């Protein structure tokens, strides 16, 4: 069994604040064997991490090249095991682009407003998917419960989980334990025993799903100059990464098959 986090972001994402060094440090703190880098609308972060690992002679962390594509209808779809960037398009075209690269189609936070369950293309798209995120540590757990109830209807989908890490400590909030061949991750994931997958995570039981919720609530009321708003968006992630640099999280089994 190996430990995998299937949903993480680097600072290549517009809202990601994880450097390569931080990702490696916290991945090792979480005892991960494999990490999927799924930046928003780019694969640059994944290639950057692979390059960093090689430069620093780190051979104890495998990287899955992924991308969280924002479809033209606002739906988010992740492609795993990619070779090239996939541009935005409507969901069915994005799915076809992933399959053209022989990648795997992974539906993140399916029940959230930007998840596949809200898309008009859902009925067709779900049949073409490979994996379904039944736990996302970044969102209110109520959305995960809805996704877990939904996947029961689709036995072809692999139930997976990810931390959806945007900050350093987020990497510690979820991992999957799966019996995979580290030399052939994709094919062994496709053929894995779904019943044996263990997903451990830290449930978010309150709050909304905006990364800067407090900021968004007050910015218009205060009518602050734009440069102060930009400074706030820059400073808060630095503060959060520093504040939680030594944080630990109690993980529990978050998906009962």
Automatic annotation (TrEMBL):
InterPro entries: PHP_dom, PHP_domain, Pol/His_phosphatase_N, Pol/histidinol_Pase-like. CDD domains: PHP_HisPPase (cd07432). Residues 4-73 form the Polymerase/histidinol phosphatase N-terminal domain. It comes from the Bacteria. This is PHP domain-containing protein.
């Amino acid at each position: 069994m190996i430990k995998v986090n299937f949903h993480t972001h680097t600072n290549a994402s517009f809202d990601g604040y994880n450097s390569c060094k931080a990702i490696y440090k916290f991945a090792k703190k979480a005892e991960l064997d494999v990490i999927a880098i799924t930046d928003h609308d780019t694969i640059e972060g994944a290639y950057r991490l692979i390059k960093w690992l090689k430069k620093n002679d780190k051979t104890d962390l495998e990287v899955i090249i992924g991308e969280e594509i924002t479809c033209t209808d606002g739906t988010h779809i992740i492609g795993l095991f990619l070779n090239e960037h996939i541009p935005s398009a409507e969901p069915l075209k994005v799915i076809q682009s992933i399959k053209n690269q022989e990648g795997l189609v992974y539906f993140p936070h399916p029940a959230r407003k930007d998840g596949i369950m809200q898309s008009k293309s859902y009925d067709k798209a779900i049949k073409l998917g490979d994996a379904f995120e039944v736990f996302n540590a970044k969102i209110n757990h109520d959305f995960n419960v809805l996704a877990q109830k939904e996947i029961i209807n689709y036995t072809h989908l692999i139930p997976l989980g990810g931390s959806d890490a945007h900050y350093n400590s987020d990497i510690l909030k979820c991992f999957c334990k799966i019996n995979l061949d580290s030399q052939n991750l994709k094919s062994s994931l496709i053929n894995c025993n779904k019943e044996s997958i263990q997903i451990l995570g830290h449930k978010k039981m309150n709050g909304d799903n905006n990364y800067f919720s407090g900021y968004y609530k007050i910015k218009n009321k205060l009518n602050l100059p734009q440069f102060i708003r930009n400074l706030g968006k820059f400073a808060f992630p630095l503060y959060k990464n520093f504040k939680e640099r030594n944080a630990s999280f109690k993980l529990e089994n978050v998906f009962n098959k």
